[in-house]
Design brief:
The complex is a heterodimer. Chain A is mainly beta. Chain A has one domain (about 5-114): Sandwich (Immunoglobulin-like). Chain A is built from no helices and eleven strands. In chain A, strands 2, 4, 5, 6, 9, 10 and 11 form a seven-stranded mixed sheet that branches. In chain A, strands 1-3-8-7 form a four-stranded antiparallel sheet, with no helix packed on it. In chain A, strand 7 and strand 8 form a beta hairpin. The termini of chain A are far apart. Chain B is mainly beta. In chain B, a hairpin with a 5-residue loop joins strand 7 and strand 8 (about 65-70). Chain B has one domain (about 5-110): Immunoglobulin-like (Sandwich), CATH 2.60.40. The chains are: A mainly beta, B mainly beta. The interface of A and B includes residues 41, 42, 44 and 98 of A.
Chain lengths: ~110, ~110
């Protein structure tokens, strides 16, 4: 059983399109995150939800909209995709909204905008 | 604010040699420190973490790290590396979120 699963694993799309990435965790964790890993492998947090409530919203264009229908799911919708959105997006979860518990990461979604 | 500096972008080492990957952090709050490993085309896997207590932390795959508060460092070490340790290693500091360093690529050569 995969603890944190993301779909799709690969996503190739044209500029201007709208796309979604889905994430599900079966660990019973309360908190979920989206991280972006750019071409230089630098990881930066985008959003965090705790029990469906948004608790971290970094400086991210408002074309990115996270949605958490329940505490086991956190989806990421991206409108009007741009070339610079090409990256690997990682979903993660933790037991509580404190990093001391450590995060469990999904395997990533590689988004390529052409 | 929290930040992490990984001092080496790449570390080449021969198989069975020891290795140290260096990490310095900055944090204005209680410090939680982590090392994650990322194998090619995979997600991040937790190697070890420091929350409190003993400054020497042992993790998976024979890795260990030492928390040094005075030098604000959390260097990762392994006494004898294997080819399979070739990967990218990320140091991270956490409070209400994890802040990652830029990563260090460990290349183990035969």
């Amino acid at each position: 059983d995969t603890a944190v699963s993301q779909t799709p694993k690969y996503l190739v799309t044209q500029m201007g399109n709208d796309k979604s990435i889905k994430c599900e965790q079966n660990l019973g964790h309360d908190t979920m995150y989206w991280y972006k890993q750019d071409s230089k492998k630098f990881l930066k947090i985008m959003f965090s939800y705790n029990n469906k409530e948004l608790i971290i919203n970094e400086t991210v264009p408002n074309r990115f909209s996270p949605k958490s229908p329940d505490k086991a799911h956190l989806n990421l919708h991206i409108n009007s995709l741009e070339l610079g959105d090409s990256a690997v997006y990682f979903c993660a979860s933790s037991q509580e909204a404190r990093a001391g518990y450590g995060y469990t990461f999904g395997s990533g979604t590689r988004l390529t905008v052409v | 604010a929290q930040s992490v500096t990984q001092l080496d972008s790449q570390v080449p080492v021969f198989e069975e040699a020891p290795v140290e990957l260096r990490c310095n952090y900055s944090s204005s709050v209680s410090v939680y420190l982590f090392w994650y490993v990322q194998y090619p085309n995979q997600g991040l896997q937790l190697l070890l973490k420091y929350l409190s207590g003993s400054t020497l932390v042992k993790g998976i795959n024979g890795f260990e790290a030492e928390f040094n508060k005075s030098q604000t460092s959390f260097h990762l070490r392994k006494p004898s590396v294997h080819i399979s340790d070739t990967a990218e290693y990320f140091c991270a500091v956490g409070g209400n979120k994890l802040v990652f360093g830029a990563g260090t690529i460990l290349r183990v050569k035969s």
